[in-house]
Amino acid sequence: MLGAHLRRMREEAGISRADAGWAIRGSESKISRLELGKVGFKPRDVEDLLTLYRLTDPAERERLLELAQQANNPGWWQRYDDLTPNWFHSYLGLEMAADMIRTFESQFVPGLLQTADYARAVTQLGHSEAPLPQVEVERLVTLRMSRQAVLTRGLRPMRLWAVIDESVLRREVGTPGVLRRQLEHLLEMSRRVNVTLQVIPFKAGLYAATGGAFSILRFAEVELPDVVYIEHLTSAVYLDKREDLDKYHVTMDALSIAAGTPRETEQLLKEILATTTE
Q1: pLDDT value at residue 187
Q2: CA 226, CA 4: separation in Å to the nearest integer?
Q3: CA-to-CA distance for 154 and 29, rounded, in angstroms?
Q4: Could you tell me which CATH class the domain 76-274 is placed in?
Q5: Integer Cα distance of 214 and 248 in angstroms
């Protein structure tokens, strides 16, 4: 967010990245990285840039300098850096900052809607050859449960719009009873005002998004573009170019149309629950 503010002010002041870099004893590439939020912010650099961009409003200067300080503070999730891959760290920060996430899943229940038992079973799936120590499994489960606080936080809870394939609701996970408790949790969460849940039923046939799961993160700050997140086995892709965003927005809209309405989804959940073992 701070990088976006700095870019907007630089452009409005008619100053090039090269000249801005010179002003803070850096380079054009450093300004580019600052504006993209890819590096930390030194208070002195931010002060000098605000002066260069002719920002004279003391309240706005103070707000942006406070934002710089916040940007440099480590997030709570960084205590789990030793257990999560580097490419996932950025997503955790984006998820915490997002105002809304639209997500599509074809294999698993979205992480923000998983129960602890379901998350535990999914975590162990990826380490069948060399099982993780139980203490590490529990830390990863705690991380996932902690992330879900974005849906219930008192100040502007995040909005979640999840579209999932019906097979997700029928695929047994973990020990007996895990799936049933997960379905009950989905039913409960779908009734929250900030959560929209849709299921694409088998009877809908083939649908878009044959490439697999993805998420679109949207932020309250108008300066920030949406971000598409696509996770692979050993890496992840972050997309924010307009042409990419347009394609994924169209695909997500098509998925929402193919899926049952929230009311139809609630009925389907109840029907599956009626045939699911304890």
Answers
A1: 97
A2: 13
A3: 39
A4: alpha beta
A5: 9
The answer to whether the beta carbons of residues 44 and 34 sit under 8 Å apart is no
**CATH number among 1.10.8.50, 1.20.1600.10, 1.10.260.40, 3.40.190.290, domain 2-72:** 1.10.260.40
In the chain, residues under CATH classification 1.10.260.40 are 2-72
Produce one character per residue of 51-77: b if its CB has 16 or more CB atoms within 10 Å, e if not: ebbeeeeeeeeeebbebbeebeeeeeb
Which residues in the chain are classed under CATH 3.30.870? 76-274
Contact between 249 and 34 (Cβ < 8 Å): no
The tokens for 10 are 């630089």
What is the model's pLDDT at position 234? 86
Half-sphere exposure of 259 (CA within 13 A, CB side): 30
Q: Mean pLDDT in each 10-residue stretch from start to end of the chain (278 residues)?
A: 86 93 91 83 91 91 85 81 88 91 96 97 80 91 96 92 97 92 97 97 86 92 85 89 93 96 96 88
